[in-house]
Structures are given as structure tokens and as C-alpha cells.
Amino acid sequence: MTTIYGIKSCDTVRKARAWLDAHGIAHRFHDYRVEGIDDARLRGWASALGWEKLLNKSGPSFRSLADSDKADLTEAKAIALMLANPTLIKRPVLEAGEALLLGFKPDEYGAKLA
């Protein structure tokens, strides 16, 4: 089963979901704001993708953090921040069998999913 993780209000998530629908790829949507994210899954993503790529430093959630939270980031600190505030996770994250994709690039989706 293909699962796409993100938040409903994210434009990139909406584009990715629309792409999946247009290509007839059944999927489940996991909304971080409603369902949260579990520690083991987040650690697995960080291991596979790199925590630096997974942490969204360009969004308003990161900018609104206290300076002490943004300073001296380590993998452990970043994971703790993302668990406490899943909107800090770059979106979307897509799991489809062995494929794990971060962000939305139509060409990459096409190569891995179609």
C-alpha cells in the first residue's frame, strides 16, 4: 500500500496527491496534524533519507522555534523537534513498497511508481 504523509493544507502535498489520483495509484493519506508520527518510523526515515533533508528549515514552523531549539542541531535534537512538531518534517514523505520519496517531483514519482 502506498502511503503519503503530510498535512492537508500543504500545496506540495495536494499536488502529490493529485498526481497519484491522476495516475490511478491507490494511496492512504496520513495527516501529521491528526495522526502524529511515531518515533520508529521517523527514525527510519532519518536513517534512509538523512535527518538534515527531512527537517524542513525553510517553513514557518522552524522559523517560529526558539533560537535555542534551532541552535546546535544534531540528529537526536532534530528528531525530538520533529516528533514534538510534525510540521517540521519536509513534505510529503511517500512510502510505496521499497520506495521512500521525500518532497514531490513528478519525474521521480513516475520513475518509482508508474
Describe what you observe in this structure.
It is a single chain. The mean pLDDT is 96. This protein has helices at residues 11-22, 32-35, 39-49, 51-54, 60-63, 67-70, 75-84, 106-113; strands at residues 2-6, 27-31, 93-96, 99-102. It has a 4-stranded mixed β-sheet, sandwiched between helices. Helix 3 packs across helix 7. Helix content is 50%, strand content 16%. 20% of the residues are buried. It has 114 residues and is of the alpha+beta class. It contains 8 helices and 4 strands. It has one domain: Glutaredoxin. The chain is globular, with a radius of gyration of 14 Å.
What's this entry about, in short?
The protein is 50% helix and 16% strand. The protein has 114 residues and is of the alpha+beta class.
CATH class: Alpha Beta
Spell out the helices and strands N to C: EHEHHHHHHEEH
Number of domain units: 1
Helix percentage range: 40-55%
User: Hey, roughly how much beta strand do the residues contain?
Assistant: 15-25%
